[in-house]
Design goal:
392 residues, alpha+beta, 11 helices, 29% helix, globular
């Protein structure tokens, strides 16, 4: 087994965690790697605010000519886990009295002033219940309506003499899927709109606001929206896309009109350890090591079930009532062994962050898939169950 070990802050037994279960976890991950589902893994587990495991398993790169072992502090794209940072940023503005969760979006962004968009609230965007068209693939039996394609097509037809290109108006051209509050449907573009709200209210780029008010104060040194600021020597080279990007062969991310659009639906890069810092802050009601990111009541609001009796049919689900907080996934069910009140988020391709306040347990892990289009529960949900099995 290719293995790298980072520093821990105590022996697992000191915080009532069975260290032998970490060997089970490592073997489980190694088996998934051998089966070709994932390339490698990097994880960080904390209990009672102390790191008890911080390890890397497998190869850092998919390339046969690169035999490096993945570093325990590997850097990678965290995809949709970015959404919970965006949600915290929105709740900071709520705390400061700048906006309200129940506020209609059109009061901030005038592009939403006309029906059917005028009834959509900030809360609807935060909980994926806005009725706007969801991500491609959510309903494979239906024609996908991509906001990104609408923006691209509208920009090609835009005449610069007519003024600044309005990407929000372009994205709204095809209406909504249904009225708000009728169904949970995963809508990343809704979190891009939340980024636009942050920018309108603060007068600064949403990415800058999130870094200045969340990641930097928490000491998340490896967490950034700027790919060029990441440590390339620790990057997980998951596939050809990332190999090309690391070698300067990727598409220019600054091309118009994309540079104007907030990257708040999935643009952060991070490490498992950094994610554990954020997770511990949320577990501690918004404060970590004397640094206040958010108030207790705001965190409690975010991590309490926010929607009730709203069905979820995304990706073939048949759930009558989706468990969701504000920005955080709060599903329960037969697949999971965590405590009630646990909140989490996954990122495509894949990574996870789970926070269990009852057990004071936070776990973050990267399990980069060999096939980006797939989904492997053994690397996500099964890993969660193995980690929680160590609790004594």
């Amino acid at each position: 087994m290719l293995f790298s070990k980072g520093k821990t802050e105590c022996n697992p037994i000191e915080v009532q965690y069975d260290e032998s279960r970490l060997e089970v976890l490592n073997n489980h991950i190694d088996e998934i790697i051998a089966d070709g589902e994932i390339l490698c893994a990097s994880y960080c587990i904390t209990r009672k605010n102390k790191v008890i495991a911080h390890n890397g398993i497998g190869k850092q790169s998919y390339r046969e000519d690169d035999d490096r072992t993945i570093p325990y502090n590997a850097v990678h794209y965290i995809a949709s886990i970015t959404k919970i940072f965006t949600s915290v940023a929105i709740m900071k503005l709520v705390e400061d009295g700048k906006i309200r969760p129940d506020q209609p979006v059109y009061e901030i962004l005038p592009q939403f002033k006309n029906a059917p968009f005028n009834v959509i609230t900030v809360f609807d965007l935060l909980t994926h219940t806005s009725g706007m068209h969801p991500d491609d693939g959510c309903f494979p039996e239906e024609p996908a309506i991509s906001a990104w394609r609408l923006i691209e097509n509208a920009y090609k037809q835009h005449n610069k003499e007519d003024g600044e290109f309005d990407w929000i108006a372009a994205a709204l051209l095809n209406g909504v899927r249904m009225a708000p509050g009728k169904e949970w449907a995963y809508c990343s573009f809704g979190f891009i709109i939340l980024g636009a709200i942050i920018e309108k209210v603060t007068g600064m780029k949403a990415e800058t606001y999130i870094e200045d008010n969340i990641t930097k104060p928490l000491g998340m040194k490896d967490t950034t929206f700027d790919f060029d600021k990441t440590d390339k020597s620790r990057w997980i080279v998951q596939n050809e896309h990332w190999y090309n990007k690391l070698n300067g062969k990727g598409a220019d991310a600054d091309d118009e009109p994309w540079s104007r659009i907030p990257d708040t639906g999935g643009g952060l890069y991070s490490t498992a350890y950094d994610l554990s810092l954020f997770g511990r802050c949320m577990m501690n009601k918004g404060t970590l090591n004397g640094v206040r990111i958010l108030g207790r009541k705001a965190v409690e609001k975010m991590t309490t079930l926010a929607i009730h009796d709203i069905p979820d049919y995304c990706w073939g689900a048949k759930t009558k009532s989706r468990g969701y907080g504000i920005g955080f996934d709060m599903r329960k069910g037969p697949a999971f062994t965590f405590s009630g009140g646990t909140f989490n988020h996954e990122g495509a391709g894949a990574c996870s962050l789970y926070i269990d306040p009852s057990e004071e347990l936070v776990a973050a892990w990267f399990v980069p898939y060999k096939d980006m289009g797939g989904w492997h529960p053994r690397a996500m949900w099964n890993v969660q169950n193995v980690i929680w099995s160590g609790l004594m």
